[in-house]
Specification:
By secondary structure, the protein is α/β, with parallel strands linked by helices. The protein has 20 helices and 19 strands. The strands form five sheets. The chain has an eight-stranded parallel β-barrel, surrounded by seven helices. The chain has a four-stranded mixed beta sheet with strand order 17-16-15-19. Helix 7 links the parallel strand 8 and strand 9. The protein is elongated, with a radius of gyration of 27 Å. The structure holds zinc ion (ZN). Zinc ion binds next to helix 12 and helix 14.
Length: 490
Amino acid sequence: MFEIKDEDLAARIGRLKTPRGYLETPALLPVINPFKSEISINKIKEIGFKALITNAYILYRRDKEKLEKLGIHNYFGFDGIIMTDSGAYQMLRYGKVNISNNEIIEFQKLIGSDIAVILDTPTPINATREEAVNSVEETLRKAQEAIELIEDDDRLWTLPIQGGKYIELVESSAVRSRELLKYFNLIALGSPVEHLEEYDFSTVIKMIISAKKHLPRGKPLHLFGAGHPAFFALAIALGVDMFDSASYILYARDNRYMTPIGTERIERMKELPCSCPVCNSLNVNELIAFDRSKRTELIAVHNLYVIKNELNDIKNAIREGRLWEYIRIKAMSHPKLFEAFKQILQAIDIVEKYDPRTKGSERGIFLFDEFDLNRVEIRRYRRFLKDKLNYKILEKKNIVLFPAINRTKPFSISKRERLRISKMLNDKNFAVMYYLPYFGVIPENLVNVYPLSQNEFVINDNLIKEMMGFLEEYLKFISPIANSIYLIIY
Ligand SMILES: [Zn+2]
């Protein structure tokens, strides 16, 4: 049902099988409101979106008969994948909905949704703990209740996870959902919208981590209502596979123009820094001069291109094994994203657990500062030094550690250096190691191993200090094996 094609960190490029063909993930499903839209579905399809999401509850309330007669694909005139949400968003906004779980499940089956959602109970941003507990319990109860209705159904059914800012509730919700997962094809993390509206990316990152660490690898994870392109890479790095959002149109109505790092108000801009068909053919003044509806359409088209291009950039980064560097760039685009990035560092164990050991391409890694000590390549190498490296060959040997910072890669010592040291030690077979920031120590026989030579780095005082601390520990660690250890400093 969900095939993983490529992986980097906890991110993956996947292929989700739906009744209307395959959906490549990570993907964003634009939210369609059939009763209010300045942009046509054909246009959205033309931009390259193969899947849409719409709200089954609104459709049920406003056009039930017609939908039941036509089916959802004919109703929308769209032959791609259609996901329907159940009304949780309305519950979040208005406190309640006038439909039962069973009714909305049957309706989604009847109209032919490809991906459907049970009627979950979202956790509002200002929920008390008791209310949050209630939303978790209610959602689990409805998931249980849904089983007999969805068991033999061919469409993909989504199990929402709630808890909101109460991270321990998100976690227990994920744990308790596991036993229900054999009946569901997707997992959706609910209630991030209000946090994202307030730029509280850190809370959403914490929510994703608490859910992800308990969920099986083989099920796609959907994040409800996340439409900030600058946030995609961070969420995807933690294993989010799908998003849905109306941000492209909501922002457009508000004259907000998306960029890969945020949004700008169109009236404050002088240039359009994009080469999508809209920005290619118009300048700012021409765009502003259109009437509201046409302007909204044009900005929405541009916003969708930004979303699509951002996802393509992220997919390239996953395929090339450079998602870590990509999320570092994104983290610098807003202090709140930087805070969220630091939150990821707190959960780097989980990211490392998902990260594949061998990447598709052996591209060199870039190391900038002490944050990069958290890179999985560095963490794994340092652990390898302590736990896996065979130290038998060093037994009773004289070990000489050379600084590597100013050497060219792959590291080596000159004949002259070798001669000088062997004379000094009166030993031709001394063992050579190199020391440097980030990796700590590299034995001579490993200098060609990826990524010990395939990297570019810069250093600073903190990294030197960290390296000295590492060396101190490491020398203690190998001193019982070695005959003697010499540290060359020059
Ligand atoms: Zn554009």
